Amino acid sequence: NRRFILRRRPVGDPVPEDFELVSEPIPDVPAGGLVVRNHYCSLDPAQRGWMDDAPSYMPPIPLGEPVRATTVGEVYASDNPDFPVGSWVMNLSGIEEYSAVELGHFTAPIDIGMVDSPSKFLSAMGAVGLTAYFGMLEVAKPKAGETLCVSGAAGAVGSVVGQIGKIHGCRVIGIAGGAEKCRRLIEDYGFDVAIDYRGKSREDLVEEIAKAAPDGLDMVFENVGGDILEAEVHNLAKKARIVLCGLISEYNSVEKHGLQNLWQLIVHQASIHGFLIMDYADRFPEGGAQIAQWIAEGKVRIDEDVQEGIENTYDAFMRLFSGKNTGKLVLKIA
Ligand code: NDP
What is the CATH number of the domain that holds 155? Predict the structure, then answer.
């Protein structure tokens, strides 16, 4: 059982020495629980936060334990009649080939007959679509004709956010890194405007957003923070809603940037809302059904970036921070 262990807490950018791939015997079945053979692990920016010993919505990953991850896998051994051997589950466990699972509310049976690859339970049928759905519908509350700006726009969450904006009749501006990602925003995801932030100063970004949204931004869906958020806040419309979903530009920095332009929130009577998908857990079936319907209707497209091999976990994970990932990053380990 190979397991991708957190050996020490990264300071700044994670380095390979922060982790170790160890090999251990397959665990025994816990009483009333399961052993799951993990096939796919979700690689998420949030995992970087869980590596820190800092107050958060979840305890830090203990040192010496595998990096926590949402996984999909097959029941390998079972002491629970509800989860027979050979059935499939989605689980919050770790990056490891086999997980001993004591059943909690994070373990759910899945029907992989519904999808062309079990990885879809980490992308199209997973938290990505739900984050975009509840962040948009419950917090941003889009109205036709409004302008939405989303950062991290070509990423897993961002690309769906923009597409939901289009479904609601909004003008959608996406901010992403590089010409190829900007091309995809327009051609693959139907955004109206794509802004490439790479190599641009905060002032450049303020200007480009102003040009794209002369009447200001009614909604900001923030995945990045830093200069991008500052530039957006400089371009708010009256009563703008900011969904604070992620701050990936800060996850590897020891010094956090904060937001300097708070005054602009007063000027525009804007609101900023810290968003956590877990708040909506009791409504996941509703959100999941709507996303599935939009996908079936061809209104939403969710791409995956599938990397292979538990021995490649570190390199795969770092794609999130270099921007190499094109779509929801998942790691195939079986
Ligand atoms: P993505 O697929 O968007 O991958 C991360 C992307 O972030 C990269 O591809 C890169 O795109 C961009 N990025 C990385 N570093 C920087 C940087 N320094 N400056 C600007 N852009 C950067 O990942 P997800 O869709 O999984 O996550 C997107 C965001 O949503 C994250 O902030 C995450 O924490 C947040 N999130 C929050 C949830 C919640 O409940 N609050 C739930 C799920 C996700 P590029 O090439 O464009 O730079």
Answer: 3.40.50.720
Same domain, 20 and 137: no
Same domain, 179 and 221: yes
Q: Which of 123, 136, 248 to mutate to test the pocket of ligand 1 (most atoms within 8 A of CB)?
A: 248
Question: ipTM of this model?
Answer: 0.99
For residue 44, the ligand 1 atom closest to its alpha carbon is: 26
| Domain that residue 110 falls in | 2-123+303-332
Same domain, 160 and 109: no
The candidate with the shortest Cα–Cα distance to 105, out of 287, 276, 284, is: 284
How many Cα atoms are found within 13 Å in the side-chain-facing hemisphere of 162?
30
Residue type, 89: V
What is the spatial distance between Cα 88 and Cα 86, in angstroms, rounded to a whole number?
7
Say how many Å lie between the CA of residue 27 and the centre of ligand 1: 34
> Encoding tokens for residue 81?
């009649």
**89/148 same-domain check:** no
Same domain, 139 and 117: no
**Residue ranges lining ligand 1, Cβ < 6 Å:** 44-46, 127, 131, 152, 154-158, 176-178, 181, 223-224, 245-246, 248-249, 275-277, 320-321, 323, 325
pTM given for the model:
0.97
Q: Which of 65, 80, 92 is nearest to 31 (CA)?
A: 80
Please name which of 233, 193, 236, 194 lies closest in space to residue 217, comparing C-alpha atoms. Answer: 236
Residue 38 is encoded by which pair of tokens? 């993990």
pLDDT surpassing 90 at residue 133: yes
User: 155 alpha carbon to ligand 1 midpoint, in Å?
Assistant: 6
Residue 187 located in a structural domain: yes
Q: Would residue 290 count as lying in a domain?
A: no
Q: Give tens-digit pLDDT for 141-180.
A: 999 999 999 999 999 999 999 999 999 999 999 999 999 9
Question: How many structural domains comprise the chain?
Answer: 2
> How far is CA 167 from its chain centroid?
21
Which is the closest atom of ligand 1 to the Cα of 247? 32
